[in-house]
Structure formats: structure tokens, C-alpha cells
């Protein structure tokens, strides 16, 4: 019985975001995008340093605000609705509903 229990791990939170090494996926993308551009441009050290700075800034921005903070900011302040197409969320520019 104890052998079967060791084969499975139970997550502490079901809503945890996807991790890439030690970062959440959005923080990893904030690191990997500048790194990739730096490698492509021939300046990988500059791209890596810029990527670390972006990941650090995003981590500080999200701290204490929840895991979906960036998505919420995008909903309220970006002018397009394509990332939210197909969801049951009304457009953000409609502030009051009547009727």
C-alpha cells in the first residue's frame, strides 16, 4: 500500500500556474523573449541581462497581486478583445448596463 502512495503526488493548490524551472510561465517568457532576440542579434549576454531584468520587474509587479494580475490588467487597459474572444466576459469598455 505504501508503494502505491509514493507513485502519486498531490498538488497543494489546484490553481497553481505552470512552472518553467523556478518561474511562472509568463515570467519565463519575459526572460526568454529578450534572450532569444539577443541571440538572434548576436549579443546573447545583453539579451540575457535584459531578460533577467524583465523577469525580475515582472516578478516585482505581480508580487502580492495574484497569479492572473497581468491578464486582468490586459483586460481593463488594452484596446482589443481578441484574447478574451469566446469567453463569457463582457467587453471592458462597457461600464454600465441598463435594463
**What ranges have pLDDT less than 50 throughout 5 or more consecutive residues?**
none
- Largest sheet entry: 2 strands, antiparallel
Count of alpha and pi helical runs: 4
Beta-strand residue fraction? under 5%
Q: Can you list the strand order of the major beta sheet?
A: 1-2
Short structural description:
With 99 residues, the chain is mainly alpha-helical. Helices cover 51% and strands 4% of the residues. It has 4 helices and 2 strands, in the order H-E-E-H-H-H.
Question: How would you describe what is shown here?
Answer:
With 99 residues, the chain is mainly alpha-helical. 51% of the residues lie in helices and 4% in strands. Strands 1-2 form a two-stranded antiparallel sheet. β1 and β2 form a beta hairpin. It is extended, with a radius of gyration of 19 Å.
Output the keywords.
99 residues, mainly alpha, two-stranded antiparallel sheet, 51% helix
Fold blueprint:
Layout: H1 2-6, E1 19-20, E2 23-24, H2 25-41, H3 44-62, H4 69-77
Antiparallel strand pairs: 1-2
Helix pairs in contact: 2-3
Amino acid at each position: 500500500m505504501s508503494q502505491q502512495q509514493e507513485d502519486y503526488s498531490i498538488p497543494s493548490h489546484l490553481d497553481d500556474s505552470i512552472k518553467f524551472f523556478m518561474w511562472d510561465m509568463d515570467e519565463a517568457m519575459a526572460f526568454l523573449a529578450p534572450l532569444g532576440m539577443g541571440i538572434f542579434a548576436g549579443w546573447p549576454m545583453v539579451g540575457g541581462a535584459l531578460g533577467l531584468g524583465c523577469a525580475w520587474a515582472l516578478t516585482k509587479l505581480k508580487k502580492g497581486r495574484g497569479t492572473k494580475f497581468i491578464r486582468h490588467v490586459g483586460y481593463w487597459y488594452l484596446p482589443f478583445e481578441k484574447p478574451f474572444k469566446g469567453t463569457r466576459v463582457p467587453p471592458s469598455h462597457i461600464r454600465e448596463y441598463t435594463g
